[in-house]
Design a protein that fits this description.
The structure holds two protein chains of two kinds. Chain A is mostly helical. Helix content of chain A is 33%, strand content 6%. Chain A has helices at residues 2-10, 12-24, 49-55, 73-83, 85-88, 124-134, 145-158, 190-193, 218-221, and strands at residues 45-46, 70-72, 168-170, 185-187, 214-217. The termini of chain B are far apart. Classes of the chains: A mainly alpha, B alpha+beta.
Chain lengths: 234, 422
């Protein structure tokens, strides 16, 4: 290894050249041709409103997209116990590795953040949107709108976002549900917050005070498929 | 000759090496299955008899001896294989293009098997004219060919707290790179005509998760592709057949597969996949959202834990891949002493914008222990950070966007382990 180190020192001149090459590298021009933006090709047909209605199932935080219908916490409990609790647990605590729905308040800054609807999710609309499109797992888009509101209400109830089991969730009452963690999200700020990771000439020699020391080993953790039966290193 | 030298012999190699010390390593794994009757001065079987004729193999497959190469999963990671991930065997491939059958998979409700005759793409919302396209419509349009890497935001996500999985396939295998053929998204948008208030698009999949993500209009009008071919072939079902989004340089989750609907709106939807998932929790408990760009990253694929060095010493080629969501890879450096000293690697093959880039580092190995690292730098001047540096900014609970420098420990017997250095 020592032979290598000395040749690394000799290579310093080459590095300066490479650094210059980096600075001069052309900016990405972007691939997509601009020409066809002018005249439409006339391909495709008009989408009919009933076709759109069948597929347009998204719901936004401002409530746009909420379907007609209604359901109470009580009605939702029966649906939840039958169709959801098997994976998510009777109290939304999760069974096995399935997603947790409730609990975990004040854990986000801890060593073991628990990201439930109540502790982490920013918007109530995401819950009804997601249940509507993807749940129950393996039987997606099978709930009626009333069942959808009812089971969503029950999930909110598990998170103490609704306290009254007679509460009726509908497009109007939905707007009263706010999730507590909304303010703790911010847009991507890596370009600014991590600006020091852009550097003209990264360190090439003697970048550590002494020889690198091994501080952790994967084989000690021993969770890799196929190597599980192999011998431990130490 | 249908004996199969494969991973069992590799594992056997590791076991013997550890148990028996240096002497056991003298015979490399592959020679264990060799047949002297095929070796000179004898004439091999395949030199004497006719082989299979043409069109027996109407769709070719790798040699039988390579049949062990494949995607693998880590079963304890997820609750069900339908909502899970399989990893590309990076240590078994070279160059920059990933074979279609080896591209990592990430499904949220299993693979949608779409009948192409019933495929429809709906485009509506803040447009002058809502449109419906068939697959033939899309294939009639002007098209482009572009090779891009596609990396899951959670690639290396299991490594935030330290070295955990022992193989490049598992630590870095949620990335692939294929040549896409598709229509620029702006061509489709131009057919419908955008309203002036248009700012965001919703992308929705046709699978049983109806996977949705919000896409800023600027990216849609830049380099976004509505793709239907990979490496010349129609997309494979597990990669979104017949149509998927391609969003160069951005996290794979937004590359919606089995694309069925695009809605144009004036604000993001904050779907499940961009709120409860694919947001990055920092040490203080706050979370970054819409962290689309995959930052400069690299990994040495050979040697790596699943691909030990089988020669005891001498001329050695380290091989690896680098990529950046901010553009082209400008340079890759390699260290064999755990990041204390670095030397530039040689880039071979194309270094395309937002594509995997192959690098090599050649040296005479004296048989002593090595701590291998690679460090990518992109054309924006961003330098891949060490894991220690990255944790200073982000803590260890981010799950996503771990682009820290990987360390492989090579023992003098050629065996390789995923380690952390300090």
């Amino acid at each position: 290894m020592s032979r290598w180190v000395s040749s690394a020192l000799l290579g310093a001149g080459i590095l300066a050249l490479i650094g210059a090459g980096v600075a001069a590298a052309p900016k990405s021009a972007g691939h997509a041709p601009r020409a066809e933006a002018a005249k439409p090709l006339g391909i495709g047909r008009e989408a009919k409103s009933d076709e759109i209605a069948g597929w347009d199932i998204d719901v936004r935080p401002d409530g746009k997209g909420l379907p007609p219908g209604k359901g109470t916490v009580r009605e939702g409990e029966a649906i939840y116990m039958q169709q959801c609790a098997g994976c998510h647990g009777e109290f939304g605590e999760s069974a096995g590795r399935w997603p947790i729905l409730a609990g975990g308040e004040n854990t986000l800054g801890s060593n073991d953040p628990v990201k439930s609807i109540g502790s982490f999710w920013p918007y109530a609309s995401t819950v009804i949107d997601y249940i509507r499109r993807a749940m129950p797992f393996g039987n997606a888009q099978s709930l009626t709108n009333d069942e959808l509101y009812a089971v969503t209400a029950y999930v909110f109830y598990l998170n103490d976002l609704i306290k009254d089991e007679h509460f009726e969730l509908n497009a109007n009452s939905f707007k009263s549900i706010k999730l507590p963690n909304e303010r703790n999200f911010r847009d991507d700020d890596r370009d600014v917050a991590e600006k020091s990771l852009w550097r003209k000439s990264p360190c090439m020699t003697n970048c550590l005070p002494g020889p690198a020391r091994i501080t952790g080993r994967a084989r000690v953790i021993d969770v890799t498929p196929e190597s599980g039966k192999g011998p431990k290193v130490e | 000759m249908s004996k199969k030298p494969n991973r069992t012999s590799r594992r056997g190699f590791l076991r013997t090496a550890l148990a028996g010390g240096a002497a056991a390593i003298a015979s490399p794994a592959l020679t264990a299955d060799s047949n002297p009757a095929n070796l000179p001065p004898n004439v091999a079987d395949w030199s004497k008899t006719l082989g299979e004729g043409v069109a027996v193999r109407t769709y070719g497959k790798p040699a039988k001896s390579e049949a062990h190469i494949g995607r693998r999963d880590v079963s304890w990671l997820t609750a069900s294989p339908q909502s899970s991930v399989s990893f590309t065997p990076l240590h078994e491939i070279d160059g920059i293009i990933t074979p279609n059958g080896l591209c990592f998979e990430r499904h949220h409700s299993g693979i949608a098997e779409v009948n192409p005759a019933d495929y429809r793409l709906m485009l509506h919302g803040l447009v002058d004219k809502p449109l419906m396209f068939t697959l033939d419509d899309i294939k009639r349009m002007p098209r482009v060919n572009r090779a891009y890497f596609c990396e899951c935001a959670a690639n290396s996500g299991m490594e935030w707290r330290g070295a955990q999985l022992n193989g490049a396939q598992f630590t870095h295998g949620m990335v692939h790179c294929v040549m896409y053929t598709g229509v620029p998204l702006k061509v489709l948008l131009n057919e419908a005509g955008l309203k002036p208030s248009a700012k965001w698009l919703l992308l929705e999949g046709g699978d049983a998760a109806a996977m949705t993500r919000s896409l800023p209009l600027a990216k849609a009008l830049d380099d976004a592709l509505v793709a239907y071919r990979m490496n010349g072939e129609m997309l494979y079902p597990e990669n979104g057949y017949p149509v998927r989004m391609v969003l160069p340089g951005w996290e794979a989750n937004i590359w919606v597969k089995w694309l069925r609907r695009i809605e144009v709106g004036d604000q993001p939807w904050h779907t499940r996949e961009e709120t409860s998932k694919y947001t990055d929790v920092m040490a203080d408990g706050q979370a970054r959202r819409f962290t689309y760009v995959m930052e400069a990253k690299s990994v040495i694929t050979n040697p790596s834990p699943q691909a030990p060095i089988n020669h005891k010493s001498g001329f050695t080629v380290l091989s690896g891949i680098a990529w950046s969501g901010r553009g082209k890879i400008a340079r890759v450096d390699v260290s064999i002493d755990g990041g204390r000293n670095w030397r530039p690697a040689k880039i071979d093959g194309p270094a395309w914008d937002k594509a995997l880039t192959r690098f090599y580092y050649e040296f005479d190995w004296d048989g002593s222990e090595l701590l291998l690292q690679s460090r990518a730098m992109d054309e924006s001047g961003y330098v891949q950070p060490s894991k220690t540096e990255l944790r200073k900014y982000r803590g260890v609970n981010s799950i996503y966007h771990n682009n820290g420098i990987q360390t492989w420990h090579v023992r003098s017997n050629g065996e390789v382990e995923n380690v952390e250095v300090g």
